[in-house]
Design goal:
It contains 8 helices and no strands. It is an all-alpha fold. Helix 2 packs across helix 3 and helix 2 packs across helix 6. InterPro entries: NAM-associated_C.
Length: 319
Amino acid sequence: MHSELINEYNEEKKGAKGFKALPLRPVGAVECRWAHILKVLNKFLGCYSNVERRMKSGKTRKDVLTEAKELYKTSSGSCFNLNHCWGILKDTPKWQATQQENDGQGKKAIQAQSNSQSTVAAPSSDMPSSTPAASSPTVVIDSNEDDPENSRSVIGNVRLEGQKDAKQKRAEDNAIEKIISMQQDLVQISRERLSSMQASMQSSAYEAVMSKDLSMLDKDSRTYYQKKKRAIIAREIQEEKEMEEKARKERDLKEKKEKEEKQKKEKEEKQAKEKAITAHNKTEEEEDEDDAKDKAEDEAEPDVEDEAEATEDDVDEDK
C-alpha cells in the first residue's frame, strides 16, 4: 500500500516544475550503505590521525585534511569522496572520544613493543666474545641455570610481559567495544531518521490522494480514488484507536504502579508504627519490672535507722 501511494504521488507530480520524485529505499539498502560509509570513514580517520600526530607548526587543519586525503589515496588506491559525511561526524563527541582512544592505544602498543625489544637473553658461554652487540638496547643476563637469582629474574620478566600483553588486549577490546557501540548508535539514529522520512512521505502521499479532484476523472478512475480515500480514512481511524489504546494502557500501568507504591508505603508506615508501639510497651514492662524489683529489694533489706534506734533503746534499758 505504501509503495503504491508513493508511485502514484510521483506519477501525478512528475510534470510539476522542480519536482523531485520521492525515493523508496528498503531498510536493508540503507544499512548496507551505512556500513560502507563507516568502513571508509574509519579508514580515513586512521589516516587523518596519523597526519595530525606528526603535524608540524605552521600547518592548518586544511593542510592536515589535504595530506590525509593523499595518504588515504596512497593506501587504498582510491580517492576519499565522503567529505560531506566526514564534515558531520568529525565533530561529534563519540567520534572524538574514539579518536582519542585509538591514539592512546597506538602509543601504548609502541611502548609495549619497545619494552619487549629491550629485554633479551644473553648468548651462551660457548659463543665467542667478539659477537657484535644488537642495535637495540639489551639487558645482559647470565645464562647459568643453577643461579636461582637469574631464574627468578627470567620468570619475573616473562610474567611482566604477560601482564603487559593482557593489559594491552583489554585496552584494545575496550576500544573495539566503544567503536561498536558508537556504530550501533549511529545505525539507530539512521533508522529513526529513515522511519521519520517514511512517515513524512506517507503523509504527503495520503494528502495527494485526499486532495485529488475527482470531478474531472472518468468513472473507473473516480471509483479507484474513492476506494483509496476510504482506505486512507479507515487506516487513520484505526491508527487513532491504536494510539488511544496505547495511551490507555500506559495510563493504567502508571496508575497501577502508583497504587502499588502507595500500598507499599502504607504497609511500611504501619510496620514502623507497630514496631514503635511494641518497643514502647516493652519499655514500660521493663520499667514495671525494675520498680517491682526495687520494691522487693527494699522490703528484703532491714531498716538501718530502725536497727539503730532499737540498739539505743537496748543500751538505755541495760543502764
